[in-house]
Design brief:
single chain, alpha/beta, 2 domains, 13 strands, 29% helix
Length: 242
């Protein structure tokens, strides 16, 4: 597995970028209820620091979260102490029988695993389908297009009380690949610690994703938002029903 969300980037992501999960939670909870899922187990793939798991836990759901980042799982266990979490790949983890599966933040687009192919996508979808009970749903979003209005390389600098991040994104339009180079500074005692990570994100064709979902057995709808929380530019949501 590639380096992904080590201690400092996980901390910064939780403190500085948890808004999406918090704002998406009401819409996701509404989706669950609209499909008759008011209790039982929800599996969260790419669970991050456990913000969505905490919302589920508060509403009485059981939660099983999976993330490749050890640092994220440590944060998640503090955020949602009654949920179960496991360090692992969302493409390889054996999923328990459940009522719903979610995956927020374009997790299926990340290339943390080696040798990800189109067949890997189908295998993931089939794994989810087999884990879901009849009437269950799979809700997720993916990087579906490059935000072409942006000029690349795109550079962002953000700061918090005890952290800073320098972010540069470059894109290969032919390969449909976005590369994010992130340099972080986190205050430890009286000093700042510097860390660096490079993440690669593939841009998925919505028709391919839909076809692979349907091949796995799902009925599919597109989502432009989670309730009142719109998708970020270039992202598309999917609601797959068993």
């Amino acid at each position: 597995m590639s380096k992904n969300y080590d201690e400092d980037l996980a901390y910064i992501h939780d403190r500085g970028f948890g808004r999406f999960a918090n704002n998406a939670a009401p819409g996701l909870l509404k989706l669950l209820r609209e499909h008759g899922i008011r209790s039982g187990l929800v599996v969260d793939l790419g669970c991050g620091s456990g913000i969505w798991a905490r919302h589920l836990q508060v509403q009485g759901y059981e939660v099983f979260g999976v993330d490749q980042s050890k640092a994220m799982i440590q944060l998640a266990r503090k955020c949602a102490p009654h949920a179960k979490f496991e360090i692992g790949s969302l493409f390889q983890t054996k999923l328990p029988s459940c009522n719903a599966v979610t995956s927020m933040g374009e997790c299926i687009s990340y290339l943390f695993d080696k040798n990800i192919t189109r067949d890997s996508l189908f295998k993931l979808f089939r794994n989810v389908y087999e884990a879901l009970r009849p009437g269950g749903i799979f809700v997720f979003d993916a990087m579906e297009s490059l935000p072409y209005k942006l000029k690349y390389p795109k550079r962002i600098y953000l700061t918090g009380r005890d952290w800073a991040i320098l972010f540069e994104a470059t894109c290969d339009r032919k390969k449909r690949l976005l590369t994010r180079h992130q340099v972080t500074f986190r205050k430890i005692g009286s000093h700042y610690r510097r860390s660096e990570e490079v993440h690669r994100v593939r841009v998925l064709n919505r028709r391919v994703v839909r076809r692979e979902l349907e091949r796995a057995g799902f009925r599919v709808r597109y989502l432009k938002s989670y309730g009142r929380m719109p998708m970020f530019p270039g992202r598309l949501g999917f609601l797959a029903l068993k």
